[in-house]
Amino acid sequence: MDRISPIRNKSGFTLIELMAVVAVLSVTALIAVPSMQQAIHSNQLRTEISRILAAIKLARSEAISRNTTVSMCPSSFVSTGTAACSRNYADGWIVFTNRDRDRVVDRDSDEIIRVFEGLPGGYSLTNKAGTTAAFEVISYRPDGSSRRNRTLMLCSPHGSAIRSWSIVMNVVGRPRVARGWGECL
After folding, report:
1. What are the tens digits of pLDDT across the range 14-51?
2. Residue at 106 is within a domain
3. How many CB atoms lie within 10 A of CB 51?
4. What CATH number did the domain enclosing 52 receive?
5. How many domains does the chain have?
6. Looking at 33-183, which runs of residues are DSSP E strands?
7. Using CA atoms, how far apart are residues 132 and 127, in angstroms rounded to an integer?
8. Are 59 and 95 in contact (CB under 8 A)?
9. Digits of tens for pLDDT over the chain (185 positions)?
10. Residue 3 included in any domain
11. What's the whole-model pTM score?
């Protein structure tokens, strides 16, 4: 037979135990939140460099498959609807056939292949030194070469705590990604 005990043990936390748990959770949150934010910003930077790399690879492959010069240039086409090269990749960029190899999208002879949205607020695409915003047209010839070395560095608005990502292109036209290739200012 079971006897029911008239004395019951009360289960629960005392105020001191509860305060100790809250203190431990607070310290853990203070340590974890900044590193989590840095991880989020670092991931965003990696995502953006992947989008730019995809556009460059698209330009190269389309130049080969179409047997014509294909270029990528900064453009605010997404917001303005005007197919024209501008001076800031932060506004977006376009990939287009560029038969006369200039900085102009000719309505008669050039075709827009793809339009890309701009970079998130504060992100910048610069030269390797981080001193000048990247604005140059990247062109590929029908053989897939660019005939020029260049480096594009993507910087986060969150300072130098997050290492930059760069796209390094050799004279043959092959782009590759490098981490910490230059210093963001």
Report:
1. 888 889 999 998 888 888 777 777 888 888 899 999 99
2. yes
3. 14
4. 3.55.40.10
5. 1
6. 70-74, 92-97, 112-117, 124-126, 138-140, 150-155, 165-169, 175-179
7. 6
8. yes
9. 555 656 666 677 788 888 999 999 888 888 877 777 788 888 889 999 999 999 999 999 999 999 999 999 999 998 898 889 988 888 899 999 998 888 889 888 899 999 999 999 888 888 877 778 888 899 999 999 998 898 999 988 866 578 889 999 998 989 999 988 777 77
10. no
11. 0.80
Structural domain span for residue 130: 38-179
Look at residue 71 and tell me if it is in a domain: yes
What's the token pair of residue 80?
A: 């303005």
- The two tokens of residue 180 are 């910490």
155 inside domain: yes
Give the neighbor-by-neighbor strand order of the sheet with 70-74.
112-117, 92-97, 70-74, 138-140
Two tokens at 159?
């300072």
**Half-sphere CA count of 40, side-chain side, radius 13 A:** 7
Contact 127, 137 (CB under 8 A): no
User: Tokens 């050799």 sit at which residue?
Assistant: 170
